[in-house]
Amino acid sequence: MNTVLNKLPQNMSRTNHLKLVSPQQYLTSSVNRLYGHLTPEYPNGSPFYDLGQTRPPVNKAPDMTTNAQISVMHQNINRLQNKTYRLECELQLRDPAVDVLCLTEHWLEDNQISSVNIQNYSLRAQYCRTSRQGGGTCIYAKTDLVTMERKEISALSVEMNIELCAIECIGADLIIVCIYRPPNGDVQLYLSKLSELLSMHAIKNYNVLLIGDINIDLMVKCNLNKNLNNTITQFGFRQLIKIPTRINNLSSTCIDHAFTNISMCNIQNVFSDELNLSDHLSINVTVKILKQGLSNKHILKRNFTNSSIYNFVNNLELYNWNHICDKCICPSKKIELVINVLKHYFNICFPLRKTLIKNNSCAWVTDTIRQLRFNIRKLKQNISRDPHDSESRSKLLKNETLYWNSLRDSRSNYLNNQIENSNTDMCRSIWRVIASETCKNRNNKNSAINVLISKSAGDSNDARAADAARRLNRYYINANKNNVKPCARTALEYLDKYLPSLIPTFKFEPYSLSDIMQALKKIKRKQSQDINDMSTYLLDYLPPVVISILLVLFNECIYNGTYPDALKLIKIQPIYKGKGDMEQEKVIGLFP
């Protein structure tokens, strides 16, 4: 430490700036006064952070090319807005989970459906009527599934005749189309638009699944049924549903359809199920695909535990920093060596580990809700066998009332607990819940960046990300190629003309220890990582000896008039604004 203090610039007064009397007091006086008295378990003495907080994970997607499956479910929901809790409960109790949810007859407008929240799912595509009530189609997908809306397919919609929306599952070469034909719609117009859809060049070489409520009964042999079958077979599609999908006391019809050009060996499962959401059964199709761009079940994450933090701090305190300070090199190179030491121990103490993504989807579904759901299904089966069973009907009405009240109360308690048990500001927690419930949260994994990476060239996810980075880099370079290059002579002439020829009053002053400590306190702690894969939370873990080293080296840079080269490496990251292509990306810089 004597060597460190001897490296101070000659014009820097130790008494005025560091307020030190001797090297021994450097740590025991000034640093301890600013940090607070530090015990051997150093982290507990820092006023900057709480060890009980979980540090932000570092996510790095591994190679995602695997054989997998996508589960698609269709449900004629018949008014979505008053059935979201029941639908959410059914989805959360489904095993295996539904990846893509197609809904018809949601009865919502564009400004309404964008605010409908289904936990663990996000809205990916929708069609809403503009002149009439009712109808409409929409597609929800799990939040970790990367998709892209196919608007050229949705553009084929004709209100009251054929209503479409479609998405592409990136990396799976799979297009899912949700389709609805109203009962009174023009059948010939529907068949014409269906032919136009199936012959589109945009779906060529794709696996395509069309699923929805068509209102053409496949159980009845008629010319309408025959024409529909001829239309789909001439384009290589086949019908998957051959059982009744709408059953009541008067009829049993198959009016919910699923067409596909996927080979039958890749269709793993097809079944219908009663969800008690409308008088239609749900249609479920599971497709086997080669999964490249889809989310994995694991992430690489750094765990910031008490022991790992202590090891990190202890290693930095025991390191021989005089070895760096004694080198006869410029201060910029010394700072680079210090950063390399920090990176070394950071990767040793907080290594990236493969971690399974936890599924908290059933957090608010209680055992009471499960039992009531089971009772309702059982009572409906009894009524279907004996429609005159008045006792079962009475019990059904009572159980459905209890079921709805339990759903509402359980969901309300779940949200209240999220707010009350929050370790952060309660007001901020309230707004986070509001944003989540109204679909205003910005945790969008389906951004244009993810789509760009998934559609880039490469055999692995890292290779595709590198290719996407090169494409983005070329884009931003080309976007600036027509700008006038800066001219130093012109700039100096401008300054001489418009600025008074006075001696500049600004000058750099050597930093004091209190200046450094105040600056560290003011820096906001954020989860974003710089080019060294470190976030500003790392500042909470720096022991006094590292801060003192950096203080000396920064002041040497000021004295020599240099800026550290290691701090010139800035990570440029485009942030998706929510719509459009790459020209809509906002570019930010993350400094080391």
Describe the structure.
It is a single chain. This protein has 19 helices and 18 strands. It is α+β, with helices and mostly antiparallel strands and 592 residues long. The chain has three domains: 2-58 and 299-357 and 484-561, no CATH class; 66-291, Deoxyribonuclease I, Chain A (4-Layer Sandwich), CATH 3.60.10.10; 367-437, no CATH class. The strands form five sheets. The protein has a six-stranded mixed beta sheet with strand order 3-4-2-1-14-13, with no helix packed on it. α7 packs parallel to α8 and α9 (306-318) packs antiparallel against α11. It is elongated, with a radius of gyration of 32 Å. The two termini are 26 Å apart.
CATH class of the largest domain: Alpha Beta
> Do you know the CATH topology of the largest domain?
Deoxyribonuclease I, Chain A
Total domain count: 3
Please outline the major beta sheet: 6 strands, mixed
Largest sheet, order of strands side by side? 3-4-2-1-14-13
Report the structural category.
Answer: alpha+beta
Helices, by number, come to 19
Cα-to-Cα separation, first versus last residue: 26 Å
In the predicted model, the low-confidence regions spanning at least 5 consecutive residues are 1-65
- Indicate the CATH architecture of the largest domain: 4-Layer Sandwich
Summarize the structure.
This protein is 38% helix and 17% strand.
